Task: structure prediction
Amino acid sequence: MVSEKMYALGAQPSAIRDLYEYGLRKAAEVGEENVYDFTLGNPSIPAPPEVNLSILQHITQDPSIAVHGYTPGAGDPKCRAAIADDLNARFGTEYSLKDIFITCGAAPAITATLAALCMDGETNEVIVNAPFFPEYKVFANNSGAELIILPADEEAFQINFPALEAAISNNTRAVMVNSPNNPCGVAYSEETIKHLANILAKRSAELGHTIYIVCDEPYRELYFGEGAVPFIPNYYSNTIVCYSYSKSLSLPGERIGYVLVPPVAADSRNIYLAVAGAARSMGHVCAPSLMQKMVTDCATVRPDIEVYKKNAAYLQEEMSRIGYRTAHPDGAFYFFFKAPFGLTAKEFSDMARDEYNVLLVPGGTFGCPDWLRLSFCCETEKLERVMPYLEKLYKEAEK
Amino acid sequence: MVSEKMYALGAQPSAIRDLYEYGLRKAAEVGEENVYDFTLGNPSIPAPPEVNLSILQHITQDPSIAVHGYTPGAGDPKCRAAIADDLNARFGTEYSLKDIFITCGAAPAITATLAALCMDGETNEVIVNAPFFPEYKVFANNSGAELIILPADEEAFQINFPALEAAISNNTRAVMVNSPNNPCGVAYSEETIKHLANILAKRSAELGHTIYIVCDEPYRELYFGEGAVPFIPNYYSNTIVCYSYSKSLSLPGERIGYVLVPPVAADSRNIYLAVAGAARSMGHVCAPSLMQKMVTDCATVRPDIEVYKKNAAYLQEEMSRIGYRTAHPDGAFYFFFKAPFGLTAKEFSDMARDEYNVLLVPGGTFGCPDWLRLSFCCETEKLERVMPYLEKLYKEAEK
Result:
């Protein structure tokens, strides 16, 4: 007698986790240096030195109760103000602490936001363009929404606009945007964002209800493409931002992020309160207090992403030289490439695993069953060592 | 256009928070020493020294990625093993890391547990005896259950068994137990727990489905009554424990706790997986990784609760001497007393606030509208200073 829905979510096998665990077992057998695990998106660069310095200062100098005590549910006002100030300085906005709700990372930020936007007892739909982070489906479903998946634009990995236009309905509450994208590393261009904003503004007016953009932005600071990543609230006012410091400060285990509800968004105060209510209903009390102190100190700290940039360039050059069809990453730490010669990604992934202990995530789970994700949050040397195997695999696939 | 349910939860005024904020405003006006705020359950003793020592060691000696990286969703295996070992050493149990799921504190532990136990699409009921922590209602509702509240036993603050027997039905999924209790500080006796176990075993058999006990145990280590607090899984095998280190290690802001699903509980593996699935659906990724390292080191550390014990004894003696009817706290840091001479708790709380800046939480929100909660997580000296006012208030109420 347990909830079948929750049991299914807990018991569901995960392709990524299964591959990762295979890698651990195999490494014990044949040695770590002979297993090429590119499955997980765990940052490989250490947290910037300011992070541990801040933690040390608070632990050694502040009273225990001030460091480890409850903060308000929305977060320590100083931390919220520091985040708003940083955004304002970079993006010319006028946010205040009242617009920021601090969460235990991006995942609960997204669940609370979607729950806030979905109408009780109605049919709710949230649209996402493939490829997409698969947990969005879990989060949408938990909020009472169906996730509508648009087929990928396999040329440029921008938005499939004809499919988007066809998918928008009276039930559409939000479009999820994740740029730079997990799993393909591509960022949406300014042109794409403008076109998206135009469509949503037009359709919101026609339908008589606001369609929001919900941005999942953990990779905002991990961008090495041309120019700057467009800050979406500046193109479409009805945008709610879900942010995480997991990748930008290299601390994915610490669970610290936020929801930004810009005051110019339609119904912004009500949405903010509904986000707070949704978070509360899921057991949010506050985000970890020590990490809030750290973010207060480190809100303006940016990561050193040289190694990610170098890895992306190396993979792009080598994989193209071999003949692979690839996405061109602008950010994050994911390289997305197509299984060659008509193989499915699953077939190619199995081949790579079984022949050379090379672990690559097949893209079915991301909505692209012919593509594979290689997480390049690692030393470049590991990529250089695996490249001969990727070349051999290409030639074998050709046969 | 927002979820009305979530908006209501976020916008709902909170008697406790309102009083607390009144206190802050008043303190700015008349001086902190002239405001007697007893509203919040924020521990007043610092975290044991082992806590910050552990944090310092990991920050200064471990690689950044090892300290701040993702852990498995269920938690770092070492941390889970340390928790199981500590429980086994104290309670003679045989738990293993597979029985422990680490969460961001007790609140998400409870929401995930209730969501795991509630049947999709059925009427679900969770029973709690007043007085009770008011968020249980929010958590139960979010899991699709109604919270059935049993009237308080205002004599001994044990369980109202006739009401319990009448309330159990085919829809009953669980009975919530919080002992030592917030807000009354009383712990259930061994006799109470045995009687509860007998009733639930009998009724589960009659109804043909298991009724679980869900224990919320943040105050387990804050016990100063006679003997030891009964460890409920040793009296009723179908018990699921939700624990938090907030109070026992004085770090409520850090969000670290766990769900224990004992292997002897009916359907235990399925419940464990359903807890994992429910947590995932609410955006749980892992509990804060640095705090997991700390708990691994500090699983056997107990708080020094001398000041709480002393405060409880002082309040018990003085408040009884004045003439108040009181609960007799065995643990936690809450003193519960009845508004005298037929006043409602709200009337008495308003009087105390308006005349002497004494802030006490009226018990309506806990299911006891005639009783008040005084949080004594403070220096004894503050209690000594407020006592003349509590004596005056008693005499004024008599008029």
